[in-house]
């Protein structure tokens, strides 16, 4: 196999980062700097003098290449491969295919490993990375390196692990013109114009980073799709990317525009029941698989926000999805059909739409269709209750769609550790199949006990920013997403720790501070943006900054007032029986907790209830006062985060230190802006004073309302 | 002074470029790798044990910082600064202000140095970098490092140099949304959204690179301007950039939208003779200078391609320019008023428009106005004759506008050394003030012998690409532009050599090959795109690829057929007396050479003449055959370029080698595409056969005409 030419050990070890370099964060968590702890490094070096790979698959070769690169860096001297199993050293292979691994695991152990699983075993003077399959060996190699990066002991190494979810995907909302919808880390890393002939080394590094956390699929185009991506020249470009990704176990997926048979095929219709339409998709699928044998499949946004779909022909989402699924099935491809739909009619409660539309279709989808559901029923708000579809479609495999880009969570600027949000959602008990049916159990299929398709998708936060994610801590969101996609029952803090240990120097102060930032920042963000269950009160279009006053938009459910319903009496969206009754979409046991404002957790109070400003909360505060304290707590927490980070000056490289510092300074300003603008706005209804001990808004409400940001990033391309 | 925190010697020397790094070209020509030639390195190290800076200006501090960085890298060990002039070592200061430099130069020598000039002097065991002023010291420091990077001997060092042109500017056609009009190296490096609080280290490295070649101004916004850049929050963002640039001697400029008093100021008019309009610009200038004391001034595109301007109010370009000039004058700012105008009426010959409009205004501009003229009369074509305005406005300082981005020259993909094109233009004799009045002499003012404003501007080829320019050799275009702006009479090959020596390993094969690529590639590009004086026959809008068939556009002078006028009889634009008589805009001595097809150099034949297909050329070939041979020669040359580059495999780092190789592979394909598409098209008129020994076009004309590229880069932002 031929790996892209980035890695040249002899060269990379000789080069020093020049004057223009310092540490720009490009290496992500795959840093492989020489281990500073000399006895530890020496013990590793003694144990791992060489590497033996048994097998020739592209994935095994990539795994070996990574091991040589990683070990040479971590140990501070070149580590080489050998042609036969060494008496002492590291042995890499695939169970059942590499004879060196025979008898390494018990039959029971071996059977316990899922596809993509691996074992790391120390036996005498030999260490084994044993993959259940080629991908498993690759994941094992990265896990082994992670083990060393974190300074873990090699004694009695006996570790088995495997993914609980089959498809672990990044969704790139990248447009073919290089812009990224809701992208806040620069522009698209895909240079479609120069593909297939120019292969940016970044494509390989992207694949390595993803492989290291178990991501095995990349949807490289925006869900607001263009048909042209199915034109042959674009398929050839996609095939070139697929070739770069393949050794790293990553399949490429494309977003399918439902009307492509019309726009590209020249057909008069895209009706899923039309024979010519079926044939067009079948032929297109064959063409794709001839170019990309391991093509993953299609992700589809249909009949939503202006995208075409089966509803235009009086067909259901199931008929639409099955059309594509039938075309892909002979080749092993799947369809990820998004449940994020809303019709042209304005609903009483948008939170109810997807459920109403999809639950009746349960059981009507082909086996190779998944319905991809956002974590909450609105749209990636700082905090949402879990989507009512989770647990409500037992006969349909549901994929989780999280966002990693932070559309409503401070975008590319704010440090907001999303792991806590993911965990909150995944750990939520839906009671769907009885108590203990967490969202995680639905996603990984264990709630149903069958061998269904499983998937978790994350809307990528990756762009041309040199450190990939703009805000350096955005790397942690990418990392944590991948680790939770591998194991949705995992704990966010474990992954924060891993990321931090691989990313920052091994100093207790640095480690504690970085991990704490990730742990506390999501709650802080919720507080300074949308505390107590508020949601969707941001600036219009670009979604940058506060905009609770937004009311004149083409659709009511694009405004803020639709969601907060503030008036002189009170604030909040009544989703109980006296209101939209969105709670009836959940199991009664789930709903029971939220039906009454007395038992409803404060975090979701205004999501489910419209309450008077002077409503008394368990804290003893009025609703208004609690709102004030919450907003202030959020902003104050960001001040603490900044202060804590500043205490690290000199404890890590200056470039990354300064980068985070500057972003936190902006976040502190913007947290106060959110706080002050929202409180000034809500005060215009409550008429109540901000508690005396709290800072008053710096400016008038008119000032905040008058701010405009025509060039805020991440908006849709219009060309 | 505080420098941005990128440079930390202790850190940068410890770090090695990690697995994801290799050599990505980010360091440009400021590489400072340890000198491989050990005796040479030791002799430098012995001579330069320390650095002493006498003076405290930001520019002097930046110069010292660069010297320490550069010397430490080149010599392979930390070099430190001392608090007093060392008996042995390097002394940095400003003439007349640093006592260490007293008596270093003769009075005559000192007087000969222009502003920004410097002397590098070796005297006994001391080496001096003596600036005429602070900028001069900075330029001297970079020149000294360049001297070492190129391995030049320190013996008898006595070198005086200074800029022949006062204002040496990059023009960024960067939009506030991050897109770049005609940008082919990714997107804008200016993150307006996060300014002024987030300062990307790249801003500093940009400034360093520019200072190293003498660039002293940066126009950071697109000539197709938005008024909002004058809103206070945007001015604060610009001020933050200006602060980063200041230590590197670079002033910031903004593009001024002529209608800003209406759009931003709420006035009913932007009439330059309106008192309120005058006051608005005066107030705006005062506001700008309060934030940016060394603000450079405005660049203006008015009454051209839809941009507003004075003509809407029945005023002249001079009245428009003087309006802004009067506002800037009290603060020392200048106006660069672009001559690239064309009216809404379609002209008989667009090549004549600017001359007709501007020559009558000669002498009517304020002293702080320059008219900025593109090198040729059409628009940055692969080859154009010099613009007739050069030499035609003796009472008005003219600025040269070159492009560095390669809009019509292969964009971000093709390797085309623009230096040869710059040189061809600058060395052209206009005969304006008698024989020997080269364009260079007009640009540097020497043709007029007065102390007028002088300027050269280059439309930047810089983007978010990690190597800044997409195609690695685009760095050479940036470099060569800067060096020629410093000295327009310089020779391109000298600067190719400098760049190559600083950029690539010191191997004769590598050096010869790289310099040769730069030397031959422009002629090759002209040949495979627009030989024999053809021009403006590219694809519409995006200007990517061939499009000689383009005929249906909103304006005739946006089509290709307007320019080549091919028919059954022949091809070419008659610009002699029998045609548009564009030649009468030049001096008669200049025109004489081009009037007759017999004396007209083949390079401009079809620029000035419409000739029959069977017209006999001095070569003995018919025009048609010559066209065929020229197109083939261009494509064949690219094949040779690729072959030569491939011979360097293993002689430089693999990442840069592969990057150039992949781009050359694309260039080879695209050169053939240009050749075949254009010959297929012109053959449909000539009806003559392609000479037997030449390859025939691979596809039919219809095939080439049918190709579409909706997402080719660099097109205008539409949002």
Layout of strands and helices, then pairs:
2 copies of one chain form a homodimer.
Chain A lengths: L8 H6 L23 H10 L2 E4 L4 H18 L4 E3 L6 E6 L12 H6 L5 E6 L2 E6 L2 H16 L8 E4 L5 E5 L29 H12 L4 E3 L12 H14 L5 E5 L4 H4 L11 H17 L5 E4 L16 H12 L5 E5 L14 H6 L10 E6 L23 E6 L15 H8 L12 H5 L11 E5 L14 H13 L5 H12 L4 H22 L31 H4 L5 E2 L16 H8 L9 H4 L2 E2 L10 H24 L7 H33 L14 H6 L13
Question: Can you describe this structure in just a few lines?
Answer:
The first copy, chain A, is an alpha/beta fold and 719 residues long. Chain A contains 22 helices and 16 strands. Helices cover 36% and strands 10% of the residues of chain A.
Q: How is the biggest beta sheet of chain A arranged? A: 8 strands, parallel, barrel
First-to-last CA distance of chain A: 40 Å
Number of domains of chain A: 3
Helix content of chain A: 25-40%
**Total count of strands of chain A:** 16
Would you identify the CATH architecture of the largest domain in chain A? Alpha-Beta Barrel
CA-atom Rg of chain A in angstroms: 26 Å
CATH homologous superfamily of the largest domain in chain A, by name?
Glycosidases
What is the strand arrangement across the widest sheet of chain A? 7-8-9-10-11-12-13-14
In what range is the share of β-strand residues of chain A?
5-15%
Instruction: Flag low-confidence runs of chain A.
Output: 1-21
CATH topology of the largest domain in chain A: TIM Barrel
Query: Outline of chain A, from the CA principal axes?
Result: globular
The CATH first-level class of the largest domain in chain A comes to Alpha Beta
Mean pLDDT of chain A: 95
Largest interface: A-B, 67 and 66 residues
Question: What is the SS-derived class of chain A?
Answer: alpha/beta
Keywords (chains A, B): Carbohydrate metabolism, Glycosidase, Hydrolase, Polysaccharide degradation, Xylan degradation
Pfam family, one (chains A, B): Glyco_hydro_67C
Subunit structure (chains A, B): Homodimer.
Enzyme class (chains A, B): hydrolase
């Amino acid at each position: 196999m031929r790996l892209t030419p980035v890695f040249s050990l002899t060269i990379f070890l000789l080069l020093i980062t020049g004057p223009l370099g310092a540490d720009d964060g490009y290496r992500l968590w795959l840093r492989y700097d020489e281990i500073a702890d000399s006895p530890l490094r020496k013990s590793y070096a003694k144990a791992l003098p060489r590497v033996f790979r048994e097998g020739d698959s592209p994935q095994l070769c990539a795994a070996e290449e990574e091991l040589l690169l990683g070990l040479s860096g971590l140990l501070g001297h070149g580590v080489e491969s050998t042609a036969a199993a060494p008496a002492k050293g590291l042995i890499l292979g695939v169970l059942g295919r590499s004879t060196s691994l025979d008898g390494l695991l018990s039959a029971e152990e071996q059977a316990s490993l899922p596809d993509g699983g691996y074992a790391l075993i120390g036996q005498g003077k030999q260490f084994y990375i044993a993959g259940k399959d080629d991908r498993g060996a690759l994941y094992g190699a990265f896990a082994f390196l992670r083990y060393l990066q974190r300074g873990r002991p090699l004694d009695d190494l006996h570790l088995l692990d495997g993914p609980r979810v089959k498809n672990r995907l990044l969704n790139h909302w990248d447009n073919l013109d290089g812009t990224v919808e809701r992208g806040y880390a620069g522009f698209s890393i895909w240079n479609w114009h120069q593909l297939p002939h120019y292969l940016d080394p970044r494509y390989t590094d992207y694949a390595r980073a993803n492989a290291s956390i178990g991501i095995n699929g990349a949807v490289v185009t925006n869900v607001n799709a263009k048909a042209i991506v199915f034109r042959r020249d674009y398929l050839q470009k996609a095939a070139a990317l697929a070739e770069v990704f393949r050794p790293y176990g990553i399949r490429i997926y494309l977003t399918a525009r439902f009307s492509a048979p019309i726009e590209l095929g020249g057909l008069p219709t895209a009706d899923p029941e039309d024979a010519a339409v079926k044939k067009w998709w079948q032929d297109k699928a064959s063409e794709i698989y001839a170019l990309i044998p391991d093509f993953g499949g299609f992700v589809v946004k249909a009949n939503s926000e202006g995208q075409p779909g089966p509803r235009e022909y009086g067909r259901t989402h199931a008929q639409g999805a099955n059309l594509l699924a039938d075309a892909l099935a002979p080749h092993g491809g799947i369809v990820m059909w998004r449940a994020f739909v809303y019709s042209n009619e304005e609903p009483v409660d948008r939170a109810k739409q997807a459920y109403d539309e999809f639950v009746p279709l349960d059981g009507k989808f082909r086996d190779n269709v998944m319905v991809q559901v956002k974590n909450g029923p609105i749209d990636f708000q700082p905090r949402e209750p879990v989507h009512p579809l989770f647990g409500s479609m037992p006969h349909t495999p549901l994929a989780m769609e999280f966002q990693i880009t932070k559309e409503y969570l401070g975008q590319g600027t704010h440090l907001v550790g999303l792991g806590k949000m993911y965990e909150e959602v995944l750990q939520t008990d839906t009671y769907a199949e009885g108590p203990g049916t967490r969202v995680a159990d639905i996603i990984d299929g264990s709630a149903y006990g069958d061998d269904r398709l499983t998937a978790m998708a994350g809307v990528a936060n990756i762009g041309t920013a040199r450190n990939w994610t703009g805000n350096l801590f955005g790397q942690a969101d990418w990392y944590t997403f991948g680790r939770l996609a591998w194991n949705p029952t995992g704990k966010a803090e474990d992954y924060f720790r891993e990321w931090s240990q691989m990313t920052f120097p091994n100093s207790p102060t640095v480690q504690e501070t970085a991990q704490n930032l990730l742990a506390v920042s999501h709650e802080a963000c919720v507080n300074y943006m949308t505390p107590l269950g508020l949601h969707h009160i941001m600036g219009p279009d670009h979604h940058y900054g506060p905009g609770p006053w937004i009311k004149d938009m083409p659709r009511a459910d694009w405004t803020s007032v639709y969601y907060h319903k503030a008036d002189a009496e009170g604030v909040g969206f009544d989703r109980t029986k006296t209101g939209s009754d969105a709670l009836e979409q959940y199991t009664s046991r789930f709903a029971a907790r939220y039906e009454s404002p007395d038992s409803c957790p404060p975090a979701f109070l205004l999501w489910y209830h419209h309450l008077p400003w002077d409503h008394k909360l368990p804290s003893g505060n009025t609703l208004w006062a609690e709102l004030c304290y919450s907003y202030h707590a959020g902003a104050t927490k960001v001040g603490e985060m900044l202060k804590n980070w500043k205490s690290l000056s000199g404890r890590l490289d200056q470039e990354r230190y300064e980068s985070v510092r500057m972003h936190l300074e902006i976040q502190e300003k913007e947290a106060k802006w959110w706080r002050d603008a929202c409180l000034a706005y809500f005060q215009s209804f409550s008429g109540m004073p901000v508690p005396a001990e709290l800072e008053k808004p710096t400016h008038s409400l008119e000032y905040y309302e008058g701010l405009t940001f025509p060039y805020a990033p991440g908006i849709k391309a219009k060309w």
